[in-house]
Amino acid sequence: MTVVCRESYSSQSVPLSYRRNQDGTIEVFKEGSNHAFSSLAQTFRTVFLPQGYPESVSEDYLAYQIWDTIQAFCSSITGTLATQAMLKGVGVGDVTATAAAATITWLLKDGTGMCGRIVFAWYQGSSLDCDAKRWRLFADILNDAAICIELISPLFPYYFTAIACVSGVLKSIVGVAGGATRAALTLHQARRNNMADVSAKDGSQETLVNLAALVVGLLITPMVSGNPLLTWFLFFLFTFFHLYANYRAVTCVVMNTLNQARLHIIMKEYLTTRFLHILSPAEANAREPVLRRVPRPLEVNLGAQFGQLCKRWSDMERWASSSSNEKYWLGLDRRTGFINILLHRDCTSQDIIEACFQAEIIVINTENEDVISQYFDSRGDDPDKYTKGDQLPADASWKVVRLSGLMAESLYPNFALELRNTGWVIGHTLLGTNEWRAEWSMTGIPEGKSFKSL
Fold first, then answer.
1. pLDDT tens-digit series, residues 181-195
2. CATH of 61-251 given 3.90.180.10, 3.40.50.1820, 3.20.20.10, 1.20.1250.20
3. 425-430/257-259 β-pairing
4. What average pLDDT does the segment 45-53 reach?
């Protein structure tokens, strides 16, 4: 018999071989000795892992899912404890409680939660994509806080409705932040345009974990009923593991797209090593904080309005002369602590990254005032010649913007090339760009022209 074909569903599936028999028929058989175990493992992978795993997902998928499974189990257990406390708070087991009062309390709790969901999505919705890891961890910390509030609610029966409403608001924020960041992480993990499959299998994994937690909850509920000491012990125990697993989950994620934090970390390394080293996605993600924002002396307002840069005609002259890229203007406002970047309506992701590249030069120069001067010294150049003899006022903010623009013009092409070679995706970014876009002209825009017709 001769093997005429060998195939596999993925690199970790059981290979199939096709043999040609002497009578001319083709027979299929599975390689490996333990076919029963292999079939069971293959069935598990098919049901709970994305099609084509592991090639169809990111390299950090398995590590993230393991820690995410642990945190989901712990959260389900603490949620069971909180549900018992809430049912006791609304009057379950109390002969004096009425169904109408419990219903009103629950409706108020749900209503305030809905309002909180709307407000939070309006206030922070646009930043959830940009800092998915930090908001993911924030959502789980807030979830544990809400569960803690629910556990203490029976101790304050006169304020139970208010406490329940506070818990409802917190859990609504958890729902928005957790759901949005889960979508962002799923998009990162899906490598074959299979976001729906990755999301569906993630839901299957979570359902399996919740079923296991349900069984454990059925066992521990009679034990903790009427035993507050054991209740709080289990709460703190599972909360600790919940937070630890969440921290490990988000820190093992390696995002290969740029956000403000990762770009700042990359730029700091790039400038301090004299333009010799660009951090890889794994290195930059390892340095990215997930409990707090990256501390910076100046904030970058990407996609600013025209009025935030230009109050007078001299402002237009100043910022126009400071940038060689015609698709953005960059202005520094030391009074407010913002670097405002005005974007042209035709700007591309490359222009946006270049604008942020220049902004980070200013930010890092504010932390270390030698960065710009060291660059010009290394070229044997005098930076003053680019700002002297100008008709514009000698303003310190304008000078640093002007010099940083010259640095960006010289360094960015090679920086962008090295980013690609190091494994970064720069076709799209997560830099938190506002949607304001503009068109400008130093000679004036004819009246009656619509925005789209310019």
1. 988 899 889 988 898
2. 1.20.1250.20
3. parallel
4. 86
What are the respective helix, strand and coil percentages of the chain, to the nearest 5?
60, 10, 30
Residue 46, C-beta contacts closer than 8 angstroms, at least 6 positions apart: none
| pTM of the shown model | 0.85
Whether omega for the bond prior to residue 54 falls within 30 degrees of 0, making it cis, is: yes
Rounded to whole angstroms, the Cα distance separating 335 from 328 reads: 22
334 Cβ neighbours under 8 A, 6+ residues apart? 396, 397
Apex CA 210: angle with CA 205 and CA 216, to 5°?
A: 135
In the chain, the amino acid numbered 297 is: P
Give every strand in the sheet of 299-302, ordered side by side.
299-302, 338-343, 328-333
The closest alpha carbon to 323, from 382, 404, 379, 444, belongs to 404
Q: Give the residue from 40, 54, 65 showing the smallest Cα distance to 8.
A: 54
| Span of 2-6, 263-267, 291-295, 416-420 with lowest mean pLDDT | 2-6
Handedness of CA 344, 349, 352, 357 (dihedral sign): negative
Question: Which residue, among 14, 42, 13, 17, has the nearest Cα to 29 in the 3D structure?
Answer: 17
Contacts 24+ apart (CB under 8 A), 84-90: 84/221, 84/224, 84/225, 85/150, 85/151, 85/152, 85/153, 85/154, 85/231, 86/150, 86/153, 86/164, 88/154, 89/150, 89/153, 89/154, 89/157, 89/160, 89/163, 89/164, 90/160
360 and 264 in contact (C-beta within 8 Å)?
yes
Return the half-sphere exposure (C-beta side, CA atoms, 13 A cut-off) of residue 394.
Answer: 6
Token pair recorded at residue 398: 């304008």
Helices (H) and strands (E) in the chain, counts: 14, 8
Q: Which tokens hold the place of 365?
A: 């120069």
User: Which residues 6+ apart lie within 8 Å of 191 measured at CB?
Assistant: 55, 56, 57, 58
pLDDT tier at 367 (50, 70, 90 boundaries)?
A: confident
Least confident window among 58-62, 301-305, 438-442: 438-442
Question: Domain ranges in the chain?
Answer: 2-48, 61-251, 257-430
Neighbours of 298 (CB within 10 A): 20
Query: By CB neighbour count within 10 A (0-12 exposed, 13-18 middle, 19+ buried), where does 99 fall?
Result: exposed
- The helix (H) or strand (E) run that includes residue 196 is helix 195-224
Would you state the torsion angle of the CA atoms of residues 280, 282, 287, 289, taken in this order, to the nearest 10 degrees?
Answer: 130
Mode of pairing for the β-strands spanning 26-30 and 328-333: unpaired
Work out the average pLDDT over 343-362: 93
